[in-house]
Amino acid sequence: MIKITIEQLKYFLAVEKYKNFSVASYELCISQSSLSKQIKALENELDTILFDRTTRNITLTDTGKEFLIYAKNSIKSYDNIIHIIKNKKI
């Protein structure tokens, strides 16, 4: 069974947004090495590479582009669930 955390999805989205591990880690308030380890763990869990990494650029692979759609939808659904539950009046 594949296990992906909400944090890993958020980390993936941040790296995709900034195209830079250092900037993404700063925005997420985690170390760059922790972010890199979480992205690598996500890729290992999915048994695929999500980012093409060079010394100057970070770009999504074709699989990463497809995963981006699902990651965005998953985070949106997660945020909606949290909002609904927190605002539910009983």
Question: What general form does the structure show?
Answer: globular
CATH class: Mainly Alpha
- Terminal-residue CA separation: 36 Å
CATH homology-level superfamily: Winged helix-like DNA-binding domain superfamily/Winged helix DNA-binding domain
Could you describe the 3D structure shown?
This protein is mainly alpha-helical and 90 residues long. The protein has one domain (6-86): Orthogonal Bundle (Arc Repressor Mutant, subunit A). Helices cover 68% and strands 7% of the residues. It contains 4 helices and 2 strands, in the order αααββα. It has helices at 6-18, 21-28, 32-46, 62-86; strands spanning 51-53, 58-60. The protein has a two-stranded antiparallel sheet. The protein is globular, with a radius of gyration of 14 Å. The termini are far apart.
Primary descriptors:
Arc Repressor Mutant, subunit A, mainly alpha, 4 helices, 7% strand, two-stranded antiparallel sheet, 90 residues
Summarize the helices and strands and which ones pair or pack:
Layout: H1 6-18, H2 21-28, H3 32-46, E1 51-53, E2 58-60, H4 62-86
Antiparallel strand pairs: 1-2
Helix pairs in contact: 1-2, 1-3, 1-4, 2-3
Question: Could you provide a short overview of the structure?
Answer:
The chain has 90 residues and is mainly α.
